[in-house]
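Run log, item B.
One chain of 278 residues. Sequence copied directly from the ordering sheet:
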Amino acid sequence: MKASSGSMPWPPAEAAPDVDLTRAFASCLPGGRIAGPLHAYRSLTSTQTVARAWSSAGAPEGTVVLADHQSAGRGRQGRRWTAPPGTALLLSLVLRPALPVARWPEIALAAGCAVAEGLEAVAPVSARLKWPNDVIVDGWKLAGILAEGVAGAAPHVVLGMGVNVSQLDADWPADLAGRARSLAGLGVAVARDQLFAAILARLDAWYGVLHERGFEPVREAWRRRGLLGQPVPLGDGEGTSVDLGPGGELVVRRADGRHARLVAPPDDHHDLAPARAS
């Protein structure tokens, strides 16, 4: 288990990692492909932004950035991710997958399975998955996942995860009120370090499955939890989600019986790719 050694420069415009917080969470790293180092901050702009900076500085696969608070946290398609200090599990990982770029979307789906299993390992909840990146408990959004891929000479994926742990109902901004809730809001008390350990242990396992056995085991695990039969907006109307395809795409049945396939790229600065008819 490795904590921040200080051997690499801190990302620009960010404070130094907090030694005590780093030490506390570094002891929870699972090892394997996610062995650290860990850089934990009391407050920063965004774990995604800082993890990308560490990656550009040469951080190895398995580097984890964690924060008590984000001043400019974000989710998919530029949406804000807000939480009072200390109330959410906020982290991003540097991954350097030995997978073709075309398979990178599988990583976010594997992460969804890991978050769901980690939650169930430490809390009496039943977690479902909403394509492409939400973890749902009792109809409430409890966690979100953001995967951003960078191809090139040193290809990598920055995988972000945010889990609502102890926010109060009054803490939610207007766009999340009525849709999101925390474990505490559901009457469940869980320590963040315990949840961190459980989720990363499952992520290490599923990430290994992707490399060693391919996507099909992840697909089957996702389908067992997937919220299907839901309305899905399409460019020319609306359909109903019916399956997760063999490449991680969402299969949507149109009213006329034809099927469309929606693809979420790993770099979530982009919108969903256009639906393909079949």
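Observations after the first pass:
- The first strand starts at residue 38 and ends at 41.
- Residues 8 and 151 are 22 Å apart (CA to CA).
Flagged for discussion on Thursday.
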